[in-house]
Design a protein that fits this description.
- This protein is of the alpha/beta class and about 550 residues long.
- The chain has four domains: about 120 residues, FAD/NAD(P)-binding domain (3-Layer(bba) Sandwich), CATH 3.50.50.60; about 110 residues, 3-Layer(bba) Sandwich (FAD/NAD(P)-binding domain), CATH 3.50.50.60; about 90 residues, no CATH class; about 110 residues, 3-Layer(bba) Sandwich (FAD/NAD(P)-binding domain).
- About 30% of the residues lie in helices and about 15% in strands.
- Helix 1 packs parallel to helix 16 and helix 16 packs parallel to helix 18.
- The longest helix is centred in the last third of the chain and has 21 residues.
- Bound molecules: 3-acetylpyridine adenine dinucleotide.
- The site of 3-acetylpyridine adenine dinucleotide (N01) has 26 residues, from helix 6.
Amino acid sequence: MAAEIAEPVETGRYDDDVEELDVIIIGAGNLGLYQLYLIKRMGLSVRAYDDAGGVGGTWYWNRYPGARFDSESESYGYSFSPELTQEWDWKEHFSGQPENERYFNYVADKFDLRDNIVLNTRVVAATYDESEARWEIELDDGRRSRAQFVVAAVGILSAHYSPDFPGIDDFEGESFHTSRWPREPVDLRGKRVAVIGAGASGVQVCQTIAAEVSQLTVYQRTPHYLVPLRNGPVTPEEQRQLKDRAAEIHRLCREVSPVGFMYGPDPRSALDYSKEERWKVYEELWTRPGFAKFLMNFSDLWTEDAAADDYSEFVREKIRERVHDPKVAEKLTPRTYRFGARRVPCEDNYYEIFNRNNVELVSVLDTPIERITQKGILTSDGEREFDVIIYATGFDSITGSLTRMDIRGVDGQRLADKWTEGFRTLLGMQTNGFPNLFIAMASSFCNYTVCAEMVAEWNANCIEFVRNRNFRSIHPHKEAEDRWMQHVRDAASQGVAKDDVSSWFKGSNIPGKASSTPLMYFGSLQAYRVELLNAARTFEEFILE
Ligand code: N01
């Protein structure tokens, strides 16, 4: 049943130098594919461009060993088509990259999207023509296309980031970034491998390769709180039950869980119970797969300081139980911020790899990386030699993939200039001075597909509204942006969200990036949905021309 991964094909057709369209979509990943489906269904001319050689976005690029969902597969799959949900069999509860890539290819085929997708093609610039109220985009091969609307479905984590270590080009071995992993298999067996970065990507790589490499050295800066994933195959009986429950699962994700998962929080307050009672609840939930162990937990773990402190100590205790050497365990234990202040990665056997003789943990807080050398990595305690260096150093999130393009709005203003002091939008959807540009970031803090579907639907409705009412363009008032950005700041000012730790949620993981305003919205998904519905009720926060 699973679709084969299509070979990269060039599907765009150009009769003229400049193709005229109704809608241009930048990106053929999770959000872009659904956006394309919706726009096609409206009968508009549309093309999606993607610099990847295939569809799937994140699940095309992040093909490093061990890459997989940490949302339950059935909640990460689209909900818009009951037929698709019934046809597609997820093989694992937390599906791996190869199957995820097949899923998005299956979607592209099933909904006949391929003819509208141009692969291997990067959008380098987009310029708004005020006199015609149309965008013109320039592609990396010099071709151009024009459309009334542009949906930048470029993904929240697609602009990969590599620190500017001195000597990075001197290294004579092989180097890879997790997010630009080659399509051809990389043989790491018996090699001396360094992994720089210990976030979700680094953790998945390390636990997957530790047993096959001759030496693994993990360069960690800030330790994460990690929770066990507890993945497993979906049995035929579970498959049937999941399909029977599909509508309910999708409703839970959209309407009940504050963060788009298939389970809701316990409304009780942790602080109403004794420590013994609380830790009994934590222990019971700890046996559950994925995020359930904290998303089904007391609802105030994130908002009440004392509750957050308590749960953080519980998770620290779990780390100490699994790592034999107390000094190594201490290096792996977060002390400077609370559980949930950064995106929590899941793991299978990550902590146990540090009990192996061939794995070493280097805390770059104690011994900073000074330079990359011809043979390996030099830290303040000396040089270690490697055959391979893997950079698991993350992303210039949310804004990075937009500001790397030359996007110019009204009066030639550059988007990158507008956001020098920080990210400014209304609802993460549009920004003043850039009419008819949909940022399409799914930037509510939640299970990605759940928010991505809402965002794509909002964009499609908005485009329909503008066209049906014979407006030329839409973009938000500055005052509306001010209101929204204050709301975003307020939502991030409570509980663990206010902890001071480097995070892609805020942009503080990138040196020099403005990080005073969060890039993500930390209110509940339901609050975000109400904001979206209200905005589309009257569009009074928008300038319509
Ligand atoms: O990136 P990260 P990621 N010197 O930013 C370190 C999603 N995702 O690719 O913590 C030394 O989390 C950096 O150190 P520090 C998920 O949403 C999902 O791992 O900043 N180290 C950190 O350890 C996730 O949150 C899955 O101090 C440096 C690491 O690099 C998001 O993607 C799987 C450094 C970067 O960690 C990003 O995850 C994978 C330097 N100069 C990813 N600069 C799923 O399971 C950076 N680092 C679905």
